[in-house]
Write a structure and sequence with these properties.
Blueprint (H helix, E strand, L loop, with lengths): L6 E8 L5 H15 L3 H22 L7 E8 L3 E8 L13 H5 L9 H8 L2 E5 L7 E8 L8
Antiparallel strand pairs: 1-2, 2-3, 3-5, 4-5
Helix pairs in contact: 1-2, 2-4
Length: about 150
Amino acid sequence: MTSTRSTTVEVRLPSRMGFEKVAMQTAASVAKLMGFREDRIEDLKTAVAEACINAIEHGNRLNDRLSVGVVLSAGTDELEVKVMDDGKGIQKAPEKPDIDRKMHGEEDPRGMGMFLIQALVDEAEWVAGINGKASYVRLVVRLDKEPETV
């Protein structure tokens, strides 16, 4: 019988660039303990860093009186990461970036973070804050099971 209990790790970060690395390393440590492959851990680290940078820069607007909350919930076969800030959240889904135009300098090279996050995790959901509640992004990465050998 498999337990469905999850283990939760919480980190509170100052809204200053550079502290996303604390969340990256924490997520990597939890994923490693869960048995994730190294390539999936690297994807997770990138997605968590991008989500934290967005929370620091866009959600909390670099206000160092505000903090970014990171909650990691490790289940038996998936890791859920919530990155919370005090911003209003996104009001509409961004348009898909034109990678070629960005690469040729015809568009601002920024603005690809959400699409990068979506490409690196199994699930990504952005939730806008309502009635004074924090906005957050919810990321889910599933643990790949190794095929059994007979």
